[in-house]
Amino acid sequence: MKTIQSLAPEAVWKNFYSLTRVPRPSGFMKPITEFLLNFGKSLNLESFTDEVGNVIIRKPATPGMENRKGVILQAHMDMVPQKNNDTVHDFEKDPIETYIDGDWVKAKGTTLGADNGMGVAAIMAVLEDNTLKHGPLEALITVDEETGMFGAFGLKKESINGEILLNLDSEEEGELYIGCAGGEDVTATFQYKEVEPEDGDIAIKINLKGLRGGHSGLEINKGRANANKLMVRFLREAVASYEARLATWEGGNMRNAIPREAHVVVTIPAENEEELIDLVQYCENLYNEEYAGLEEKISFKAEKVDMPKGLVPEEIQDDIINSIFACQNGVMRNIPSIPDTVETSSNLAIVKVVDGVGEVKILARSASDSMKEYLTTSIECCFNMAGAKVEMSGAYSGWDPDVNSPILHAMKASYKSQFGEEAKVKVIHAGLECGIIGANIPGLDMISFGPTLQSPHSPDECVYIPSVKKFYDFLIATLEQTPVKE
After folding, report:
1. CATH number of the domain at 4-181+398-480, please?
2. Per-residue pLDDT at 80
């Protein structure tokens, strides 16, 4: 059976395979950090970590190219850990199992880690190839991008020497990104003292799964279902019509992933069991009908479980349900001057109600700081009216497009020369690290590009094999044609 190591370009794919062997979920960076440092040192290149854990590897210019502008090749080392409900996988121990499906590389029941493993693999290929022509190079491989861009935030100006930054974290070959959305985390917290279940009630667990999920920036405009939003529709009706009482709720696990699964435990009078089961079946049919063509098969099932020790008080329960029902989720509006690109959106990412605490976590994104503030304030007002404590954190501004960028013009010309077609210049509705790095190190000339990926942040993540060679050939040509220092 053909393996990914045999795919072209082999230099990239063999390094990507090596990355799939190293556990690297966000927040668990030690193994991958050591792997990258050892890789750089094995090539006799200056390799070190900065104070926040970013890996930096420096490669001198090839003879005759010393007068070129220094280039920073930038990617992030962490991956989003998502798996199917029936997949047994420990992201802190187990390697990612890959396979080839036609023109695509996929993973068996988990995220693939092509976001941003393909970027890291390309950087590794450049570093180890002494036949390439390039000016001074620095590999900047950042930590914990997916959970808060901590590596980018912590980067210091003195750590980096280059003038041009090539971010290899975009996901459509042939597109050059010159701007991105900013973001901010919103967390709403409800505190409560549990109350005892009613005598004669029974407990039912409702499981919602099978949703496609995906990247909460790149795929927020696909119209896919949000597990927390589907669950709250069911819960509101169950409470209103069948005397259901909420015990626990867990939905979603990453702010930047559209939630794919959710489950709740409720109690109901025993005589209402059959009607509640009918409601579950009705919702399953309804949701599959509403999302036909967008979701493959939504599963919504109920099972009897042991009675929980405590319930959410009725007034708090209603506040939680009503505020989640009302909370903005999805695309709010597109960029007026670029109407095919999302400007402002939110992802109702995580709901966890258990042991006296109800927590709702939302990621708000916008290419406009004023619209981001408007969105986060509207979410804050929604939950404030419900009596929740609301906190904002992790705010970062977007990356303002520079259409006069010298490296942009050089790369557009290079792409046309290589492939006989124009590269598309775009702004992305995702939180690239360019905006943060550019704020920390003013004056960098920045472009983001990459191979074609689909459904990052979900177990459907895959990379289009033919795009990888075009991406890598373009990267090599860009390095060869780096402008001379002024």
Report:
1. 3.40.630.10
2. 94
